[in-house]
Amino acid sequence: MTPHSLAGCRVLAVDDEPAILAPLRDSLSDAGAVVTTAANGDHAAALLSERVFDLVVSDVRMPGLNGLELLARVKREQPRAEVVLITAFANVELAVAAIKAGAYNFVVKPFADEALIHDLANAWSLVQLRREVTELRAAGGGPALPFLVGGS
Fold it and tell me: How far is CA 62 from the centre of its chain?
């Protein structure tokens, strides 16, 4: 994995624990991301109204708007963004609910920075590919022909 695998990616990192948020911000920045932080879901929701993000990394349990509620808001307001939820209180039901609601992944704390960055880099690649498809379609490269004619 390259050290700048998130180069150019706009990330919103959300966690109510400063001991988690600060190192997360630093790791994401070191990987090349442009990072904005929020200390709770309500602050994150306000930022979503002001800026566009490619990825959102959010804790699940926070005061005010929780991670699942924030996920729903991201999917409604910025559907092209991918969301990775992180939590120290994991259970299968919560993970399934998060994935069904549209989360890219569900990560349990404590997590290895390298593993999270790798996961986010994969999500960033997906965002970039979707953007490229949208741009190609807008430029006239619509859906493929239903048949192919060729010769040699």
Answer: 18
Q: Residue by residue, what is the 3-state secondary structure of 87-128?
A: ECCCCHHHHHHHHHCCCCEEEECCCCHHHHHHHHHHHHHHHH
Rounded Cα distance between 111 and 125, Å, is: 21
Q: Which amino acid is at 35?
A: V
User: At residue 146, does pLDDT exceed 70?
Assistant: no
pTM of the model: 0.85
Q: What angle do CA 80, 36, 41 make, to 5 degrees?
A: 75
The distance from CA 68 to its chain's CA centroid, rounded to whole angstroms, is 13
Interatomic CA distance for residues 152 and 131, integer angstroms: 35
Which pLDDT band holds residue 110 (cuts at 50, 70, 90)?
confident
